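Nuclear pore protein
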Amino acid sequence: MASTMPNTAALSNSGDKTEKTLASSLGELVQASKNLPRRSNGVGSLRRSLAEIRRRAVDMRKYNKEGAKRNPYSKVHYLMMGKGITIEDMEDELRSIDVRPVGSDASAVVPGRRQAAGKAEKADGAGAFGDVGDYMAAQRHESILSAIEQSLSTSARDFDRFVSDNVSAEWKKSTRNVESALQSILKPAQQPQALAQGQAPQPQPHTGTFDKEKKTALAWRSRPSTNILSAQYTFGDVGKDAGSAVRANPNVSLALRRKFELYAQVVYNLNEARQAGHWYPICTVFADLAKHEMTTRAKQMHEAWMIVRDVCGEGDAEREEAKQRRVAGAGSANSASSTSASRPARLEERKFARAYTGEEAQLRQKIVARSRAYLEEQFLDHVTELYAKVAGGAAPASNAQKVQKFVELTRKGKNGKWKVENLTFVNLVPIWATLFYLMRAGCYDEALALVESNVDGFQKLERSFPLYMRAYCASAAHALPADLHGRLANEFNQYFRRLGAQKMDPYKYAVYKLIGRCDLARRDLPSVALTTEDWLWYHLGLVRESGSAGADVGAGSAGAVSAGSADSASSAGADGAFDGPLQPEIYRLADLQQAVVSLGASAFDGSRSNPLYLQVLLLTGQYERAVKHVFESSEMDAVHLAVGLAYYGLLRVAVSAGGAESTLGAPDAPAIRLMHVSAQGVASIDFPRLVGHYVRAFKLSDPRVAAEYLVQICMCQNTQNPELEKQQIAICQQAVRDLVLETREFVILLGRIDKSGSRVPGVVEKRRKLLCLDDSAAFLHNIAEKAARSAEQEGRPYDCILLYQLAEEYETVLATVNVLLGDFAAAADFRTPLGPVVQADRILGEANIVKLARRLLKMYSGSAEMLARTSASRRHTCDALLQLIDLFVDFTSSAPDLVDILARVKSLGLTPCSPDLSMDQIRAKADEFSALDEPLARCVPNMLIVQMSCISQLLYDLQQGIDAVRFDRLAGSQTNGSKDEKIRQLRLMSKYCMVYAGMVQYKMPQEVYRTLVSLEADV
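Structure:
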């Protein structure tokens, strides 16, 4: 340690020496900097007038001339000669410099101007430098204008900054208030699970205020677009594994395109039928289309459409119509009148809407009955197909024989033994199994015949069963009266409780439970192998919705099975007799729906070749969940299924509030829900966004088809919520307007107006009845005019012109055209020819506004109706702007007729362009400037430049003696005067033009007035 001390001291001493050396170097640099040359060395500035400077310069030059008596600057002359600098060369170079004010040369403005000013000879030194006084006056005037403009710019910036600060402060204050209010309602993000489980929040370590606010702050995101055609939203409740299937584009493959076109044709035919007030069998048509596809999904959709078809009654209506056609063809009026009494209810659009949205029990019972009938018919077809394979070419058999053969084939093993134990045989026939499957096939007459033909075969306890069976089959709802139901329940409790599950015939137990709805607390069937269809048919048989005692024992609110039924069953089993009145047992369609949802799709889609979850959802009346389930695999099928259900009113519609609830604290893109479920468990579909999500894939390629689909959103009549109907209609009309603006296919969608003023309707106008627009005026106001306003807000003036034209707002069309014409004329560049630009089909990628304005003026002039709906002032402004543009085109041509241009400027009467004017007339013209339409007023500066440029060039040509004859066409009091008189007239016109410009200079851009001053200097 001691050995290191000297080294440290040495390092310290060397550091001190280095610091002293640096300090001395810095001191020397400071002293040396004082000797550097500076901008001001104490020499006084020269303060001489321009006249004194000019006199001294002349005196200095005269000693260098030949013959001078003395030259006091000879030494300087020789000194500079020694360095290679000659005074004569410098003098020649200074004389060759043109020191006129910048911009005084008008050749850059006037086409064809000769560069002759630089070649003129200067008489003396003063003439070479020009009029210095005029130059300084122009500079002083320009400085004044610059100061004024700078003051205005500073004031504008200060005002904008003041407004921005105040608006930002108010916005931040409002944001803090809303955020604090929401934070007081919502739970902190770091404790959602603990609070949900009822746990006390854990204490957190102390952190700063900023960190605490940062943790509890809400994640603010912008609301998703209210435009249902926007690609900025997704369905948050749809499985992400759907992938590209959900976002399928019909144009990606030929097969998908073919399917898209077929389905679009069906939608078109549907709209045609709706518009004509006719019924359209949409389910049958879609079922036929799906039948021809050879895929598992197509087979599934075919079955789905057939289920909806049977529920809606399309098959009954078609059979009845065919029967009526046959009767009408036979010419039997009596038969026709006799069949009219048994005619089913006429199918029409939205027939079930009021009952379905109102949760009416009658409709639910109809859904149950139709679903059972569908399953029974499906099972009978399966039995018949199986019998045909086994029997071969045998004689036709009855339904009872087919069912008996089915029981033998499915319930017997290969060894000939029955797979099910404790079967009851009567005449070697398993009577209860055959009876069960006859009922399963819907053969109730054959089942009753089987029972009555084997009455002697029933035991003493079953003597009353034929009576129960007869009443059950005779009932349209397949329900026992209250008295028979009580007797059957008593027998069920006595027999099956005493016998036990191991010793009884399982099919006898199933038949008793099905007919008498006994012991609903235990709805399973032990020892009976049931397929998914069998299970669903059995549960549909237990469901009751009506309130009568016979049809529905135990009607009540939807819910679980009451505990009283289980208690009564227990007491009956213990005492051996039915003790007390039968307690009502509740099992409604809502209970079955809840059971299906709780099981989920995995319980019914076990077979990939035959998934059944969609069919189960439709058979149980869960149409909204069915649409959502189909959407996860095929968006196209889901949309058309929803359209078919909505056509009959079997789809509950819920309009999303814009997805605001999903934007709070959402780290992903804003998402909304396809299906909404209320607190009561009622599901509904966001039908507008479902259609919009599908349409946005082909809205640009097929706008006509997109419009046909969007019309379906208005299919919302006959509900019990008038506000929802209004909201649906408003969303549909807004979607149509968005489609018009995004596709810009105005002629296809909205139509056009021909030269005679008559309308040629487009797709949207043809469907105005389906859009709930009563007449043409409503269509023009709600679609075309509002779309035009939206385009105007988005800064799309060319779209505004077309939309306002379709809305028959001709005055607004002219106003918009005038603004565009004024913008074009005010931005004209005189350095390049305007002729090719005006003659082109498009200008800067948009329509040629000049050609469009000419066509519109011609159209309005040719139609008395259009002419009466436009003001004369608008037409005059448009015509004046077109004349101005023609004038500018001629001015920028290669050989402009300047005299004719001045004459046309005078004829327009916007600016003073005559030598025979008084100051009062000029002031009157300046006063008229404020009264001009804004598009015209914006063109006056360019018009003044054209006028002054023409005068300057004409004056120059006149002075040079070029084509003096053409000046006789100048408008003036002395058109045939002398050359001096014409020069005087031109200078008067220039003077009056500048006087007028000085009166309105603060209403024009500064560079315009600067150019005018430069042109005046040439004159």
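The first helix runs from residue 5 to 34.
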